[in-house]
Write a structure and sequence with these properties.
Elements lengths: L6 H8 L2 E2 L2 E6 L4 H14 L3 E7 L6 H5 L7 E10 L5 E10 L4 H12 L2 E6 L2 H5 L9 E2 L4 H4 L2 H10 L4 H10 L3 H5 L1 H16 L4 H7 L1 H18 L4 E6 H12 L17 E6 L2 H4 L12 H13 L4 H19 L8 H17 L7 H12 L9 H12 L14 H12 L10 E6 L4 H15 L5 E5 L13 E6 L3 H10 L6 H18 L6 H13 L6 H14 L3 H16 L1 H4 L6 H17 L10 H21 L2 H7 L2 H12 L6 H13 L5 H12 L5 H14 L3 H4 L1 H12 L3 H14 L5 H14 L17 H20 L16
Parallel strand pairs: 2-8, 3-6, 3-8, 5-7
Antiparallel strand pairs: 1-2, 4-5, 4-9, 10-12, 11-12
């Protein structure tokens, strides 16, 4: 790669391989760099291989080098740090490896050659302290510097590349196998590539974000190893750091680093399985190469030897895509002829671009050229989704049992296997569960619900009955999407402090939520306790039910909040209606508590008369919810138990009491009157009498509007069906002056939102007639916003229709009127 380096960088490049130190500047997860590094190590047979990576991980080298460790894997480290909200949050970071990661090749080939191996970067704790407010799991191999380099962006434009990934492939991955074996040339070019990108960054920026401290730490390690080891030392780091390391060592600025903390004092770390999906740069992993499965195939082709490894990969990829299209029975299947055309096209594109063989972008361009039969966005998204899935892959690695995952992770895996879930890849799958008829589906649902409750990221609810909100209970099937990914295991490790099993961890969280009720002022909240009860059933913590039922019983006796008691009733109805899928058929305590809710709510009902005006709307909603609870409970229970447990007469007596309090909440009074009329407890005369009181002489305009709002919230159709109510409303509004009308107009509009558009029109006509309008004057004039162009288009369409009718001898139809029916 011809690059005019500044004198200082040219001098540093000459020192890449000098004085027994051999620097291997690289891009993380690059097959080209990994293959060149493999050749470098086998030629040099170094005494030591030093690798960019937190030196606190050195005690985990035996696990990484265990023959049972199969990439992709990652070192996961976690620490507690205060966040912006003042709470302690877990910070997580991954250090991932795949077969073609240069760091992995350095470890495995170094072990093969008997070299000493060590990580030399700053410990994870030191880097985490700089990012205390960052709670996102991150990679410790991030290459954000290269992605934002103005130099590399300009170089990509000059080379005709669409992005920096294509530029990297063009310059490095597209080289022939023979050229990749020339590791001196390749690493010299990678050095120039990265060193020029580094010139875009000021030292103050690199100091603040941590690059310079890391480089001083790594240089000190290198200097110490140089003093201790006889023989060549290979230094494997990201290319962005190489020039700085050479400069620090040349100026003798490196000093021996402080000893790394002992494993017991270091942040918690584990070797975990990782996935190709998480490695994919297109999924947001800043250090990753895109399309891990594609580069895995390229790496395996390089290991096999022979020439034209890129062409072999291209043929395999195209053939696999065609076989997939046939296996799925797609309408636009990829034929053998199309595969042959795409192979030829990819090879020609590679030759045109100066590549040794078809690279990733050559292959993608050939697919677009040979497989897309129309507009690229015309129904071809499915094809490119298939291409992306194939090139990303779903491989999961494996770790030896001695990796020491917390028992919680093993319990979650065992439960997943028991429910028939795949753990050997990270592919997204769908599950459709028959909750009401199949026991094993109910158990799988509880596992999904439990993992969702613990926020593990394993499963996402897509549809079906929602037991937590008590809605859609008539649906028989529940749908989930799920995938076992490294982030699931990371979250489980984070939760491991709460217990060794999923049930223990969920129970600990549920108990904290119970205790939090008191801290939040809801220590006697029956509604909150009932929500916890439903949650426990949904996630399968049935051993907690007796205690929760007892707790709920105490709260029902003490809860002064009407809304909370009503919410409790609805939660218990949900439990009873869904007792089969939720597994509470054997708990008669649910039924006993449900019967207790009704008298508890009625006891609190009189307090609604003291509702403040701004809270009336919410309390009216709760009043309607109480009536709905009574109806739902009567429907859910056996007929012989209904009258005894939920006597409507009790409700009606309390509602009458609300209507008789002249100084009580007007909106609540209106809703109570509507419910009494709807239930047949009041006739039209009784309703009219109350209306005269609320709308007549002595009634304030504000109270009248609030009364109407409550009545309309409970039964919006009454204004249409009750002439007396319409007359009272018309007299009320007719008595207002313009200022009063404007003042109360927003409240009136809100009150009428319960009417359908057609009903609003009917009400407007009825009110107009009350005010002296003639029926013939009520024909609405329709106005349409039509542009001149639309009118002309309509005229042309009308003319075309007339021409068609004339052509078919049907022109007479245009002037024909329907004949009167014969007697």
């Amino acid at each position: 790669m011809a690059v005019a380096l500044p004198a200082s960088l040219a001098e540093a490049r000459e020192k890449l391989h000098a004085n027994g130190l051999y620097f291997a500047p690289l891009r993380h997860h690059s097959p080209a760099c990994a293959f060149a590094l493999q050749a470098m190590l086998r030629e040099l047979r170094p005494a030591a291989v030093l690798i960019e990576g937190p030196d606190g991980f050195n005690y985990m080298l035996p696990l990484l080098l265990d023959e049972r460790t199969r990439p992709p894997v990652a070192l996961l480290c976690q620490t507690k740090a205060p966040a912006a909200d003042g709470q302690a949050h877990t910070q997580s970071a991954f250090f991932p490896f795949c077969d073609y990661s240069p760091e992995w090749v350095a470890l495995k080939t170094g072990q093969e050659l008997g070299a000493q191996l060590a990580f030399i970067d700053l410990p994870w704790q030191a880097r985490a302290d700089r990012e205390k407010n960052d709670q996102e799991a991150r990679s410790l191999m991030a290459e954000r510097y290269l992605a934002h380099s103005a130099y590399l962006n300009a170089l990509a434009r000059q080379a005709g590349c669409r992005d920096q990934d294509e530029l990297w492939d063009h310059l490095f991955e597209s080289r022939s196998r023979a050229n990749l074996l020339d590791w001196r040339a390749l690493f010299g070019d990678v050095f120039s590539y990265c060193a020029m990108a580094r010139l875009d960054y000021e030292p103050a920026v690199l100091e603040a974000e941590g690059s310079l401290p890391r480089e001083r730490h790594m240089a000190a390690h290198i200097a110490r190893w140089r003093q201790q080891v006889d023989g060549p030392i290979v230094v494997v780091t990201g290319g962005f750091h190489t020039s700085a390391l050479i400069d620090l060592l040349a100026q003798a600025k490196a000093t021996a680093p402080a000893p790394s903390p002992a494993p017991a004092a270091a942040p918690a770390s584990w070797l975990i399985r990782y996935s190709f999906e998480r490695l994919d740069a297109l999924n947001g992993y800043g250090a990753g190469m895109p399309a891990p499965a594609y580069y895995q195939a390229a790496w395996e082709a390089l290991q096999k030897g022979g020439g034209e490894h890129q062409l072999a990969v291209a043929v395999d990829q195209l053939t696999a895509l065609a076989q997939h299209s046939r296996a799925r029975g797609l309408q636009d299947r990829i034929s053998t002829a199309e595969v042959q055309a795409a192979v030829l096209q990819a090879a020609r594109l590679a030759a045109l671009r100066g590549h040794a063989g078809p690279g990733r972008m050559d292959l993608l361009d050939a697919m677009r050229s040979c497989f897309v039969k129309g507009a690229i966005d015309d129904g071809m998204q499915g094809l490119f989704d298939d291409v992306r899935r194939q090139m990303t892959g779903s491989r999961l690695g494996d770790v030896p049992p001695s990796a020491g995952s917390p028992p919680l992770v093993e319990d979650a895996r065992a439960e997943a296997r028991r429910h028939g879930l795949r753990l050997d890849d990270g592919e997204q799958r769908l599950a459709r569960l028959d909750l009401y008829r199949k026991d094993r589906h109910r158990l799988r649902s509880r596992y999904f619900q439990l993992m969702q409750y613990l926020e593990t990221g394993l499963a996402r609810w897509q549809g079906g009955p929602d037991f937590l909100s008590g809605s859609r209970l008539e649906l028989l099937f529940e749908e989930w999407s799920y995938a076992w990914t490294p982030l699931v295991e990371a979250r489980l490790i984070e939760l491991a402090a709460d217990g060794a099993t999923l049930a223990e961890v969920a129970l600990a969280r549920l108990l904290r939520e119970e205790q939090a009720l008191g801290a939040e002022g809801r220590a006697r909240s029956a509604g909150s306790a009932a929500a916890l009860l439903v949650r426990a059933c949904v996630i399968g913590l049935h051993e907690r039910l007796p205690d929760l039922l007892t707790l709920l019983g105490h709260h029902l006796d003490e809860d002064p909040d009407f809304a909370s008691v009503v919410a409790c009733g609805h939660a218990l109805v949900t439990l009873w209606r869904a007792r089969e899928p939720l597994g509470v058929r054997e708990h008669p305590g649910v039924l006993r508590l449900m019967r207790r809710v009704w008298p508890a709510a009625l006891f609190l009902l009189h307090g609604l008369a003291d509702t403040a005006p701004e809270a009336e709307s919410a309390q009216v909603g709760q009043l309607l919810a109480l009536r709905e609870f009574g109806r739902a409970a009567r429907s859910a229970l056996a007929a012989e138990e209904t009258d005894l447990a939920f006597e409507l007469g009790d409700l009606h007596r309390h509602l009458v009491g609300l209507t008789q309090q002249r100084d009580g909440a007007a909106g609540v009074c209106g809703a109570a009157a509507a419910l009494l009329f709807l239930d047949g407890a009041w006739d039209e005369q009784q309703l009219s009498l109350l209306l005269e009181q609320r709308f007549g002489a002595g009634a304030t305009q504000q109270d009248a509007v609030r009364f109407l709002s409550g009545l309309m919230a409970a039964a919006p159709e009454l204004l249409l069906t009750q002439p007396g109510l319409r007359r009272s409303f018309n007299q009320l509004v007719g008595s207002w002056d313009e200022a009063s009308f404007i003042q109360y107009l927003p409240d009136l509009r809100l009150a009428f939102t319960g009417l359908k558009p057609q009903e609003t029109g009917e009400l407007a006509e009825a009110l107009a007639l009350l005010n002296g309008a003639a029926p013939e004057d009520l024909q609405a004039e329709l106005h349409y916003d039509v542009s001149e162009a639309e009118m002309l288009a309509g005229g042309r369409l009308n003319a075309a229709l007339a021409a068609c009718l004339e052509r078919d001898a049907l022109a007479g139809w245009l002037n024909t009127t329907p004949e009167a029916p014969h007697g």
